[in-house]
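Allow me, if you will, to draw on your knowledge of protein folds for a short while. I have a record of one protein: its chain in single-letter code and its fold written as discrete structure tokens. I should value your view on which stretches of the chain appear to form regular backbone elements. Thank you for your consideration; the sequence and its tokens are set out here:
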Amino acid sequence: MTMGKMTALALGLVGGFALGVWTGPHVMQRAERGARAVHDTVTVPDTPAATTTAVEPRTARRAPAARTARVEISAPALHDRLKPVLNKGANLTVASEGFRSAEQFAAVAHAARNTNVPFLLLKHRVLNEGKSLAQAIRESKPDADAAAAAKLASTQAHEDIESIAG
């Protein structure tokens, strides 16, 4: 083995060692944080003590009647209606995943178009963070009139659903 090859091999080993020393604490810290999160979330429920008090049955409440006709989120007519509202090339099946109703999906799509806020950002804030559409708009674009934008988007969504349901 020549002197140049031995030097290159030694520098490679020293470089690998230095890289491991430099990244090791970050990797270990992330691993510990992940393990702690798992252990903190796993709890063993206590066995409930036997109670002798009678519990009154709850009466079921009915959901309020829908204001609009029922349109499935996967309806081709809805996708055709909202295709120009979303960005070009958007996959409407993927975009509509997670929404409770077609009207909620359409309202978020219209709000994204009207306020120039990315659809995925509004969708995340409404579905994952549980915020109202107005709150999501306010957080995404503080200078916009969020209440008016949400109301306009809801009106447009309602019109879309009504036109499809016919």
